[in-house]
Design a protein that fits this description.
It contains 7 helices and no strands. The chain is mainly α. This is Period circadian protein homolog 3-like isoform X2. Its main location: nucleus.
């Protein structure tokens, strides 16, 4: 009786690592078993249950503006004393600038306003010293 061995120890190189061929057999590469291949092989009727339906941009923006308006009432309002205390602690509030430590690269509104003009109030936000 003959037993076939699946032990790949004979294919280990001198530095103690398996050859790339053995690694590919043992662990298929991610490119070969990618999500796109799985999607391509899945019937369309099943795929449709996992895809986000296409929406009209204007309708989405209108809904978002409504939600933002609803949240506006829950934004903090500072008293004059609180604003003065914040200005003492955070000098960037007095100068009405954004601290360098805050990453605003993803802010589309700021980018579009910077390209149009040097707006004093980026993102349409009122300066902290003038609120409430």
């Amino acid at each position: 009786m003959y037993f076939a061995s699946t032990d790949n120890s004979s294919e280990i190189t001198s530095n103690g690592q398996q050859s790339q061929d053995v690694q590919k057999e043992t662990f298929p590469s991610l490119a070969e078993e990618s999500m796109w291949r799985m999607i391509k092989q899945t019937p369309e009727c099943i795929l449709m249950t996992y895809q986000v339906p296409e929406r009209v941009t204007e309708a989405v923006l209108r809904e978002d503006l409504g939600k933002l308006a609803g949240m506006r009432g829950r934004q903090p309002w500072f008293s004059r004393g609180q604003r003065e205390e914040l200005v003492k602690v955070h000098s960037w509030i007095q100068s009405q600038t954004i601290p360098q430590g805050i990453d605003i690269q993803g802010c589309i509104t700021c980018e579009s306003q910077d390209s149009l003009s040097d707006a004093a109030e980026p993102c349409g936000q009122a300066p902290a010293a003038n609120s409430g």
